[in-house]
Write a structure and sequence with these properties.
Rossmann fold; seven-stranded mixed beta sheet; 33% helix; 16% strand; globular
């Protein structure tokens, strides 16, 4: 232990500058521009879920085995390390700092019978770590011959989890100034405990970590020789990204104890100008992220529909916008190949298109014929990168969301009336539209699905596809909860407000807006907190206290919920479903579904 004297105070407040209500705008922009790459990477993970579910939650009797509950490597980080090793099959994995990361790396190598060599650089000896490494260097990285990094090749991995402090000749300084510049193109680099676009957690203020500020300077000004592969903390609170791995946690209650977010920041060294001179330009394009790029059919689909507002559908809008380049038969043949992934020559489709069914088959008739098949539905569903809801589309095709029928979140559990004949329904926070379509199937005369946060983050394709394949008349509107009013959306007999309240920074104001558009009945689901308090009370989550999710802001208790609903005009109140309390991040909360009425 040594003392550092500051000539000037570190800060007048020493509190996080970048919070979930005010993230760093430059780094946010840098992270937001690479969602397609993050999705492509994450979509390789589900094939390894069965292996990951076999890893212990708590400490194993064998100290060499990994476990999810530990103070250093949160679960999303563990999963990303395991899956990237399994997917990339590196020849060499070098880590600076060791522990649970070493155990997860060894488990991935063993599970998939890889020839990967583990080299551990860490000055602190531990017998259980030494026994699972191929080579151990028990020195600080500052004293190591760094030429060891010069020999790494494409898909090799450098995993850095060090002191997180940049000083003269510190490990962080060596990482940024001596290791990063020397890595060869195609080498993957992970830096740990990175929370961008947010600051370090406020509870860490006495640690004086500063590593992520060095990385932040690179991100805010352009990363130059590196591509962002997967910023785990950022992905944790992007619904379109986090929902890809959510099924891993949802199948077993034991994962409720696990902190499911993380701080791994994955990058990949890309070719420099000098490197590019040595390689053919087209070859470079293929090499960069070729492991996670769409297959040829998906590339063709993207190119064919690059000007389309609805690229996932075979409809008249797509046809009109591509008609300048393709005649009808060529378009349909291409569509058939793209969506069903099997060829149909132009002659054959011409015959089918013009002469099928003893007469002229219209373009729309042909499209309807294809879209009504189970094969097309399955292929189309598979092309949506993430599903939150599990929706029955008919013909045995069910979307692979983890909010499934029969779960505590089914339409039966929330008490959706069996008959909504002649009623109007508003679904706030609709996401993939499970409850909207359920209301329509129960006879609702009008259903309006609204969302803002999820749909604007690029996760509306599932809703649009389900509506298309169900031949649904559900309307949609992208609108924030606080913008709801009789003038903007109208007034509805039944309003669904499910899984939204705890995301509201102004919960009472949100309920006032919801009440203003509810003529009769409100069905509401939310998390409950302050469970031991008999008086109306609410917990505030300034950071990531609830489930590690920075989009969660508050947790009311039941007396508070009932009082707020009465205040905004709902004297009637009934609880229809409760889920027992469970630990979510640093707080214990319960789930409740209630009905309120005028």
């Amino acid at each position: 232990m040594f003392k550092i004297e500051f000539e000037y105070p570190t800060s007048s407040s020493n509190k996080p500058r970048y919070t979930k209500s005010q993230p760093n705008k430059y780094i946010s922009k840098a992270l937001e521009s690479n969602h397609e790459i993050y999705r492509n990477v994450l979509q390789t993970f589900p094939k390894y879920f069965e292996y990951l579910r076999n890893i212990d939650i708590g400490v194993n009797e064998d100290a060499r085995e990994p476990h999810y509950i530990n103070p250093y490597l949160p679960a999303f980080d563990s999963v990303s390390l395991y899956c990237l090793i399994a997917e990339l099959k590196p020849n060499v994995y070098i880590e600076v700092g060791s522990g649970n990361s070493t155990k997860f790396a060894r488990r991935a190598i063993s599970d998939h019978r890889l020839d990967t060599q583990i080299i551990s650089i860490d000055p602190y000896p531990r017998a259980e770590i030494d026994s699972i490494c191929d080579r151990v260097i028990r020195q600080p990285v500052e004293e190591v011959d760094l030429s060891i990094f010069d020999h790494l090749q494409k898909n090799d991995i450098v995993f850095i989890d060090n002191s997180h402090r940049c000083f003269m000749n510190s490990d962080v300084t060596i990482c940024f100034l001596d290791i990063m510049p020397r890595l060869n193109p195609g080498v993957y680099l992970q830096i740990h405990d990175i929370f961008w676009p947010l600051d370090y957690p406020e509870s860490w203020q006495e640690r004086y970590y500063n590593e992520q500020y060095l990385l932040g300077a690179l991100l805010a000004n352009g990363l130059n020789n590196y591509e962002i592969v997967l910023p785990v903390y950022y992905a944790s609170f992007q619904p379109e990204l986090s929902s890809i791995i959510s099924p891993l946690w949802s199948v077993d209650e034991k994962f409720d104890q696990v902190y499911k977010h993380g701080g791994s920041f994955w990058m990949r060294r890309k070719p420099t100008n000098q490197d590019s001179q040595k390689l053919d330009d087209e070859s470079n394009k293929e090499k960069l992220f070729e492991d996670f790029m769409p297959n040829e059919n998906e590339r063709t689909t993207k190119k064919m529909n690059e000007n389309s507002n609805h690229p996932i559908f075979l409809d008249s809008e797509v046809f009109v916008q591509t008609n300048n380049h393709l005649d009808e038969e060529a378009f349909l043949a291409k569509a058939y190949l793209t969506y069903l992934e099997r060829p149909l020559d132009i002659t054959g489709i011409h015959h089918y298109f013009h002469y099928h069914n003893q007469g002229l088959l219209s373009r729309q008739g042909f499209i309807t014929h294809i879209q009504s098949s189970a094969e097309f539905k399955s292929k189309a569903v598979a092309k949506i990168p993430f599903w939150f809801h599990s929706i029955d589309l008919g013909d045995g095709v069910i979307t692979p969301g983890y909010r499934a029928t029969g779960s505590p979140f089914s339409e039966q559990a929330i008490g959706l009336p069996e008959s909504l004949e002649g009623m109007s329904v508003l679904d706030i926070g609709a996401w993939d539209g499970f409850y909207s379509f359920a209301a329509e199937s129960r006879g609702a005369s009008r259903v309006l699905a609204t969302d803002e946060f999820v749909w604007k983050s690029g996760n509306k394709a599932g809703f649009e596809l389900a509506r298309k394949l169900l031949n649904s008349k559900v309307e949609d509107m992208e609108i924030d909860v606080l913008e709801l009013s009789p003038n903007t959306v109208g007034v509805f007999d039944v309003v669904l407000f499910l899984g939204v309240l705890y995301h509201m920074r102004h919960p009472l104001l949100a309920l006032e807006r919801v009440a203003s558009v509810t003529a009769s009945t409100l069905i509401l689901q939310t998390h409950l907190d302050m469970l031991d308090c008999d008086r109306p009370a609410m917990a505030f989550y300034p950071e990531t206290e609830l489930g590690g999710d920075p989009t969660n802001w508050c947790g009311v208790n039941l007396p508070m919920l009932k009082a707020m609903l009465k205040l905004v005009g709902f004297p009637g109140f009934k609880v229809v479903y409760t889920q027992p309390p469970q630990q979510r991040g640093s707080v214990a909360t319960a789930d409740v579904v209630c009905h309120a009425w005028r």
